[in-house]
């Protein structure tokens, strides 16, 4: 707004006189002084009349800018597939910076007993020395262009991302490509992250949320998804530079990789990236390791005054069951929840079912939240809750009750559904304001679907959801086997078969 006003001030006709006050100069363009009344409060306080026109009056001699159209077509995602199968995708969003990301269809589900923990260690080894530059040189080059780099690992995908000013798009693309294609994995460099990983593992064991999420996968699945995302202490002794080299060589092939970017012209990106990636080995797309959901129970006694429990079920079809995934997303928003100390508006879940029906009613409940962890073909959905050990039996009862109610016709109101749909759409659109999120969305969707779904399509499908759709997806979810995990003082946690029987009766 300030730049528009200053630009308008530069177009004033000759002979106009500027305002001398420095504070006014920033807010009001130079215009001819016009006497105006200061208003009742100015008269009451004895202030003099001001020569500055009120902000609600149009400025004389200034032509207003035309308003934006009611509909602005969003930028399209352009995708190019190289002869070796690698995909390059981009969206030219407005702004001074560019975000570039490498997304690889590779995660802990592809690990074997011999290289278990490689994904975790690769995340820590990202942007270390390559065959073309040392780690020190790489860091200095990123600093020189004012860039930012990061890496993340999940069970199904790896991500390497970086952002910089648009002028330095070629540099950031080349740097990330070199880090992904040509890691050196010097033994002395591998030892340092291994030491840090050991320290992290001791910290994770004291984080109930992380422990329960890992335990739900190990207890609920058989196959790839049952493998831990974090390296175990026993696997760290087997990991070294050679193991990482072999893992990357086997899994980082062109058909399993996507280079995504936002804030850049597609032709410019292609001219830089294609020469760097066209000779990447093509290979064949392997079948992902099979994962079968079976349900189960996991408990860990810990020295803690609180007890953490999680009840989870399978989301059949995962992300590739698009309608079910969208309905599940709205269902999670509808349930919501949070911690007993939460404060704020609807954005913090204070109008969600779990907050109004549980957290507001039971002071012994410390947290009560719906969660999900979704993958390409399956996923888990449930409730995580925390209370004192003496209340944990009732806590499990409340979790069962809320899951059963949302699967019962007539228990969810139209007002609740409309609020959940609006909150879901709002959250997605606000997240897509970030170029980092846009780039991640492009890369991960192309790995999952082969293309990127327009956000307008998502909004339309959310708006079409009915109460029947919500109760139907909730019913399908809780009809799958129960997975239960608990941590802390678990002596009073109800038996698994007793809790599972409540959902079988449904």
Compose a concise summary of this entry.
The chain has 506 residues and is an alpha+beta fold. The chain has 19 helices and 14 strands. Helix 4 packs across helix 7.
How would you sum up the global shape? Answer: globular
Helix content: 40-55%
Low-confidence stretches: 1-36, 343-347
The percentage of residues in β strands lies in 15-25%
In spatial order, strands of the major sheet run: 1-2-7-3-5-4
Mean pLDDT over the full residue set = 87
Give the C-alpha Rg: 28 Å
Through-space gap between termini: 58 Å
Number of helices: 19
Number of strands: 14
Structural class: alpha+beta
Largest sheet at a glance?
Answer: 6 strands, mixed
How do the helices and strands line up, and which of them pair or pack?
Blueprint lengths: L1 H8 L12 H6 L12 H5 L32 E5 L5 E5 L5 E8 L13 H8 L9 H10 L3 E6 L4 E8 L3 H13 L5 H18 L3 H13 E3 L9 H4 L4 H11 L5 E6 L3 H12 L13 E3 L2 E6 L4 E9 L7 H14 L1 E3 L13 H7 L5 E10 L4 E10 L3 H15 L7 H18 L3 H15 L5 H9 L3 H12 L4 E6 L7 H10 L1
Parallel strand pairs: 2-7, 9-14
Antiparallel strand pairs: 1-2, 3-5, 3-7, 4-5, 6-8, 10-13, 10-14, 11-12, 12-13
């Amino acid at each position: 707004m300030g730049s528009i006003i200053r630009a308008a001030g530069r177009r004033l006709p000759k002979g106009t006189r500027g305002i001398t006050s420095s504070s006014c100069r920033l807010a009001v363009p130079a215009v001819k002084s016009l006497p105006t009344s200061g208003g009742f409060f100015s008269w009451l306080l004895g202030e003099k009349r001001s020569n500055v026109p009120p902000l609600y009056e149009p400025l004389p001699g200034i032509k207003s800018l035309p308003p934006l159209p009611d509909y602005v077509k969003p930028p399209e995602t352009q995708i190019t597939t190289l002869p070796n199968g690698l995909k390059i995708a981009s969206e030219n969003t407005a702004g001074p910076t560019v975000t570039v990301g490498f997304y690889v269809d590779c995660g802990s589900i592809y690990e074997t007993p011999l290289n278990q923990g490689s994904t975790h260690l690769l995340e820590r080894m990202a942007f270390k020395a390559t065959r073309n530059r040392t780690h020190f040189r790489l860091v200095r080059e990123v600093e020189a262009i004012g860039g930012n780099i990061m890496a993340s690992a999940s069970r199904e995908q790896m991500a390497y991302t970086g952002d910089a000013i648009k002028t330095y798009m070629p540099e950031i693309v080349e740097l990330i490509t070199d880090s992904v294609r040509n890691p050196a994995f010097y033994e002395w460099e591998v030892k340092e992250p291994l030491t840090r990983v050991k320290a992290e593992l001791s910290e994770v064991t004291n984080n109930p949320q992380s422990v329960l999420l890992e335990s739900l996968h190990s207890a609920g699945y058989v196959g790839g998804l049952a493998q831990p995302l974090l390296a175990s202490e026993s696997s760290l002794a087997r990991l070294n530079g050679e193991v990482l080299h072999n893992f990357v060589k086997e899994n980082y092939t062109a058909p399993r990789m996507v280079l995504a970017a936002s804030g850049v012209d597609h032709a410019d990106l292609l001219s830089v990236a294609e020469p760097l990636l066209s000779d990447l080995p093509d290979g064949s797309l392997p079948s992902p390791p099979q994962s079968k959901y079976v349900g189960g129970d996991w408990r860990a006694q810990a020295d803690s005054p609180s007890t953490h429990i999680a009840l989870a079920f399978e989301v059949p079809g995962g992300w590739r069951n698009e309608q079910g995934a969208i309905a599940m997303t709205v269902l999670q928003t509808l349930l919501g929840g949070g911690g007993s100390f939460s404060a704020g508006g609807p954005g913090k879940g204070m109008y969600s079912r779990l907050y109004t029906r549980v957290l507001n009613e039971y002071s012994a409940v410390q947290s009560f939240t719906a969660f999900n962890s979704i993958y390409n073909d399956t996923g888990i959905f449930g409730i995580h809750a925390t209370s004192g050990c003496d209340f944990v039996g009732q806590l499990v009862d409340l979790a069962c009750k809320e899951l059963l109610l949302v699967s019962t016709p007539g228990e969810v109101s139209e007002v609740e559904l409309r609020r959940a749909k609006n909150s879901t759409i709002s959250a997605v659109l606000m997240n897509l304001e970030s170029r980092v999120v846009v780039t991640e969305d492009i890369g991960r969707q192309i790995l999952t679907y082969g293309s990127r779904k327009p956000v307008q399509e998502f909004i339309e499908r959310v708006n079409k959801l009915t109460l029947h759709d919500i109760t139907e997806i909730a019913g399908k979810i809780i009809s799958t086997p129960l997975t239960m995990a608990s941590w802390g003082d678990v002596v009073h946690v109800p038996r698994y078969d007793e809790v599972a029987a409540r959902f079988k009766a449904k």
